[in-house]
Design goal:
Blueprint lengths: L1 E5 L5 H8 L13 E2 L7 E5 L9 E3 L2 E3 L6 H5 L5 E9 L12 H42 L17 E9 L8 H15 L6 E3 L6 E8 L2 E7 L18 H11 L10 E5 L6 H9 L3 E8 L2 H13 L6 E5 L14 E7 L9 H18 E12 H14 L3 E11 L2 E10 L16
Parallel strand pairs: 7-8, 7-9, 11-12, 11-14, 12-13, 14-15
Antiparallel strand pairs: 1-3, 1-6, 2-3, 4-5, 6-10, 9-10, 15-17, 16-17
The chain binds S-adenosylmethionine.
């Protein structure tokens, strides 16, 4: 089966690692093959279908609502997952000068329909049978009648319904979005094989068909889940995009493959601890994670978030100031540090951040073990300042990689450093905890 995913700007290297099975052993069985197509923000791949997995145990009970496509359950670096209908990089002819652009779009989609109608039927069957299997499972295990009409056609000739969802960018922005959506909808209705009985249903369709029209090409598919995969049910509040937090966590554990839980991690400015929750929830390499924040209100948010993760007991949050000597016993040191530093916008002013960075980096350098990973998220604007400060402090951190990303519209960089040597024994002095 072929799929495509959408991802946040700059996260492509992480998505490729994830699809290669680097983060999930269960992906070895899926035989994932990534297509070499250049589509900004999207990756096309094929994988063996794995419809439903065995329901997970929750409070000693089977929870059938957890039964779902393996990819949906595991993918953590992506925004959305789609069943692929088609993609095409060459869009010449679409917007030729002198040609009515809408009729170009209509002809294009009408011409494509015969090639994807069988795939569309297959995906629709897949979705309704997965939905119906889940419903039966819930009824069987919980004795629960599930609300909502059964989407499975009762008789062979009964229809499937669809709704079209269109995103346009680049040159296509010159067109009226509503008109394009209507034009694609009617090209589908008129050209899908009559035998399949496809009808438009804007309210409760069997499938949604998403079209992305971009300067780089056209890609079309069926969204396989209602909510973006980046919306984590276990997080109460997500101030930092969960996909970015997950990518940072993956770098922090890099080099440690054992699932035994050996690593000790620190987020010295943890806010609501999004990064730590992603870390302990998905990386069994972590034994214990400490979070620090200067703000009691932020620490309270952290308690709420960590409280929703089953692995709560691995996270401890302290209220303290990371620019003062950190509150750990002398013999303690950390295998990894992850930190989403204040950008001087929402938290602190730019001058305050400038004054803060040398102190906190000095402390990070004291408590990180040799060979440990340091993963920092900084606004692009602050990056030069950060690099200069690290240079002046003469810390022995080797840059492993820099990943430019976007937080909404704000350009930022994930820095991955490794501490390579220490001048002195890697000990932390005993200190007082500041209020
Ligand atoms: C960009 S936010 C981190 C957001 C966090 N990643 C999350 O998921 O909520 C930066 C955090 O640093 C905290 N902070 C600022 N100065 C600090 C200091 N000197 N020591 C510890 N925390 C500090 C702020 O209270 C804020 O929660």
């Amino acid at each position: 089966m072929s799929y495509f995913i959408t991802h946040g700007q700059g996260l492509e290297p992480f998505v490729r690692r994830e699809l290669s099975g680097q983060y999930h052993r269960s992906f070895d069985d899926l035989d994932i093959h990534v297509e070499e197509v250049k589509f900004p923000g999207k990756i096309v791949f094929s994988a063996k279908p794995q419809l439903l997995v065995t329901p997970t145990k929750k409070d000693g009970q089977n929870d059938p609502t957890q039964a779902t496509n393996v990819l949906i359950q595991h993918l953590k670096t992506v925004e959305r997952l789609f069943g692929l209908l088609f993609f095409e990089s060459d869009i010449s002819g679409f917007l030729e000068p002198g040609r009515n652009a809408l009729s170009g779009v209509y002809d294009y989609v009408a011409g494509k329909v015969s090639t994807f109608s069988i795939i569309l039927d297959n995906w629709a069957e897949y979705l309704v049978s997965a939905e119906s299997d889940k419903r039966n499972l819930r009824k069987e295990v919980l004795g629960e009648e599930v609300e909502g009409a059964d989407l499975r056609p009762k008789r062979r000739k009964e229809s499937h319904s669809f709704r079209v969802n269109v995103r346009i960018s680049g040159k296509f922005r010159a067109l009226n979005h509503r008109a394009v959506t209507k034009c694609i909808g009617s090209a589908l209705v008129k050209n899908l094989p009559k035998s399949a009985n496809w009808v438009i249903n804007l309210k409760r369709p069997t499938v949604e068909i998403s079209f992305y029209l971009t300067d780089e090409g056209v890609i079309c598919g069926i969204p396989l889940c209602k909510l973006p995969l980046s919306e984590r049910s276990y997080l109460n509040k997500i101030p930092l995009r969960s996909t970015i937090a997950y990518c940072m966590a993956s770098l922090a554990v890099e080099g440690e493959d054992s699932d035994e839980g050996t690593l000790i991690a620190l987020d010295p400015m943890c806010g609501s601890s999004t990064i730590l929750v992603e870390l302990v929830k998905h990386f069994p390499q972590v034994l214990f994670a400490a979070g620090i924040d200067i703000s009691t209100a932020q620490a309270e948010e952290a308690f709420l978030n960590a409280g929703k993760a089953e692995e709560l007991s691995k996270i401890v949050v302290l209220v303290s100031d990371s620019s003062l000597t950190l509150p750990f016993k002398s013999e303690m040191s950390f295998d990894c540090i992850l930190c989403d530093l204040p950008f001087g916008i929402q938290h602190l002013t730019r001058d305050e951040v400038t004054a803060l960075l040398p102190k906190v980096f000095k402390n990070f350098n004291l408590i990180i073990k040799t060979g440990g990973n340091i993963v920092l998220l900084l606004s692009s604007e602050m990056s030069e300042l950060c690099e200069n400060i690290l240079h002046e402090l003469k810390v022995t951190w080797e840059i492993v990689e820099k990943y430019p990303v976007k937080l909404g519209e704000l350009p930022a960089i994930i820095y991955h450093y490794k501490k390579v040597i220490t001048a002195e024994p890697n000990k932390v002095s005993v200190v007082s905890v500041s209020e």
